[in-house]
Structure formats: C-alpha cells, structure tokens
Specification:
Number of helices: 5
Shape: globular
Number of strands: 6
CATH superfamily: Flavodoxin domain
Largest sheet: 6 strands, parallel
Bound molecules: flavin mononucleotide
Structural class: alpha/beta
CATH topology: Rossmann fold
Number of domains: 1
Mean pLDDT: 97
Distance between the termini: 13 Å
CATH architecture: 3-Layer(aba) Sandwich
Order of helices and strands: EHEHEHEHEEH
Length: 183
C-alpha cells in the first residue's frame, strides 16, 4: 500500500496534554501506510499581517513542514466550544498567502478529547467548517472522545476496548480516504 506522510497537529501546548497522548496512541493504532510526524505549534507568533513582508523563520518552518505533508491529522481539545486559539492561529498562518495555502486539497482527519461528556464535538464542528472553507477534504463522520482516567494506559495505548476498536476503525477509514486522494 502507498505510504502517506501525515502531519499531526495537536491543538494544545501543555506538557501533559491528554490530546498529545491521544495522538500518540492513534499512531500506534493506525495502518502502516500512514507515516506520522508531529508539526509543533509552540514557536508560532500570533498572526500579524505586518510580518508578511518578512515572515519569521518559525512561520516559514511551520508552513514548509505542512506543505510537504500528504495529509493532516488534527487532535485537539475544545476551548469554550470552539477550537483552541493556538490551532486557529496556526491554520491562519498556513492559509496565507492564498496561492500557497497549505491546507487546500489535502485529506484531513480530526479527533480530540476532553473530560466533558461530548468531548470536543462542538469544537470539531468549527474546525470542520474552517477547513472546508480552506479547501481541505475532511473525512466524513465524527471521532470525539470523552476523557476518563485510565483511558490511556502507562504504555500509551487506549485501554478501553470499545474506544480502541472505534478509533482503529476511524484510522482505517482515514487511510483508505487519504489513499484515494493522494496522487
Ligand atoms: C480556556 C479553556 C476552555 C475550555 N473549554 C472547554 C469546552 O468548551 N469543552 C470541553 O469539553 N472542555 C473544555 N475545557 C477543558 C479542556 O478540555 C481540558 O482542560 C483538556 O485537558 C485540555 O486538553 P489538553 O489536556 O490536551 O491540553 C476548557 C479548558 C480551558 C483551559
């Protein structure tokens, strides 16, 4: 099967982020043709059009790392029923200039976890809408995970059987979807 280079964007900067742990667990569940690498958001300044004339190296690095990806996996918490500002900021940088929008025509999967009962479902609606406007091909269906202690074990695996099966199936669908879209 064709190898697909997937950039993972985690929408949390926190060292103990449950979303980074979920992202790493997903890597272990995914089919082998998906080759993952993290793209960090930590160094990005807030978007400011005044910086466009001479983009900071952190921005150029970020957009280069995204532009060379075949596909994206977004894993994020929900902040006040939307996506975290750090992720929106990264998306904004990647969307400009319009003729170098790094998100266009790329297959995308998204998931996320929070302790709330509808773990990130509303935030994902916003993310889906933004990526649609930017021309990404977003995998249909939803994968949101309500975080409970013990969901991810000390080895970094999803310890709850039905959640593990569900997320493995989601990664399988992402693999098939991306394989159809990546030239
Ligand atoms: C500013 C802020 C807003 C939040 N809003 C929501 C929310 O709308 N829905 C939700 O389920 N959790 C919300 N949370 C709780 C986060 O889901 C929780 O802190 C989670 O652990 C953050 O993800 P991380 O561990 O990957 O950083 C919010 C947390 C913060 C700091």
């Amino acid at each position: 099967m064709q190898a697909i280079d997937v950039a993972i964007l985690v929408g949390s900067l926190r060292r103990e982020s449950i979303n980074r742990k979920l992202a790493d667990a997903l890597v272990r569940l995914a089919p082998e043709n998906l080759r993952f690498r993290h793209v960090a958001l930590d160094e990005l300044p807030m978007y400011n059009g005044d910086l466009e004339a001479n983009r900071p190296e952190a921005v150029n690095h970020f957009t280069r790392e995204c532009a060379r990806a075949d596909a994206f996996l977004f894993v994020m918490p929900e902040f006040n029923r939307s996506l975290p500002a750090v992720l929106k900021n990264a998306i904004d940088w990647g969307s400009k200039p319009m003729d170098r929008n790094v998100w266009r025509d790329k297959p995308v999967a998204m998931t996320g976890t929070s302790p709330g009962a509808i773990g990130t479902a509303v935030g994902q609606q916003h993310l889906r809408q933004i990526l649609g406007i930017l021309g990404s091909s977003v995998l249909g269906g939803e994968a949101y995970v309500s975080f409970k202690p013990g969901l991810i074990d000390a080895a970094g695996d999803i310890a709850v059987e039905d959640t593990r099966v569900f997320l493995a199936a989601y990664m399988q669908r992402f693999s098939a979807f991306a394989a159809r879209l990546v030239p």
